[in-house]
Amino acid sequence: MIHARGLTRVFKLKKESVEAVRGIDLDVEAGQLVAFLGPNGAGKSTTLRMLTTLLPPTSGTATVAGRDIARDPAGVRARIGYVGQRHGAGENFRARDELVTQGRCYGLTPAAAGRRADELLDLLDLRPLAQRKPGTLSGGQRRRLDIALGLVHRPGLLFLDEPSTGLDPKSRADVWSHILRLREAYGTTLFLTTHYLEEADSMAERVVIIDNGEIIADGTAERLKNDLAGDRITITTTTEQEAAMAARIADGEAAVEATGGAAVGAAVEAAVEAKAEVQGTTVRLRVANAAAALPEYLRTLEAAGVKVATAETIRPTLDDVFLTLTGRSLTDDDLPA
Questions:
Q1: How many domains does the chain have?
Q2: What is the pLDDT of residue 18?
Q3: What does pTM read for this prediction?
Q4: For every residue of 227-279, which 3-state class applies, written as one string?
């Protein structure tokens, strides 16, 4: 059996399937912060709904926090937290009262529910707002209250569906600081969907990309970018003829000799991972390590008499990873779903 605390995995998903999810194999380790990325309709929210027992799968198995989602959905719900895209608190009761009521729903005594509510108010900087109704809170404050509601029963695993959607940049940063703080305080495993690529890139220890109901990439953001997208070098030359020569050199189609007859350019050709792209006087290369390849490339162009007007290196993004895998951009779709 798999349990959220003390053992290896917090959930294991094996070939789950409904209409929007054609088959997913996924293990999540205890303590991880996992970002689940994909375009609208890819199956992100459907997968979360299955894992949280809100939607029964048509086939396959999943064990979440040591409980089978089909055979023991109540056991799963007792051990996980879930923060959906919509607000969880009502409009007519004060924030602290909402937390106490949530605790009572999970079987806490009135005294224990009150203590837990106060603990979460302090953890998420909601203490000054305890007596206010949720409808009077800002978007960021209300989102923090939603997270508090998902943590009342001390789950080892918390699912977050687009936790910062619709917030301004400052509120997004504030929500994220609290998410990371609660993880540090409790060691909570976090599994979240987000359409903010920079959030997944900078915050998550692991990124899982789903498209058309199937996982197409899984790993750290850095490894996915290095292995599947690669760095970029962009240069501009003074003439289109020089740009064409620069591309031929990168592709290994033009021999270059330095002063004294020594051949140069082999290191550049070895570093380039795809055929150079030329547009007017601009040349774009995909390379394994742009910081190392650019100086060698510039020396080779100088030896060939190609005058470079500008040069820059660009680190790939997760959108570049998706583009490489599918031929389209994540940002082409209406991502929030």
A1: 2
A2: 43
A3: 0.77
A4: HHHCEEEEEEECCHHHHHHHHHHHCCCCCEECCCCCEECHHHHHHECCCCEEE
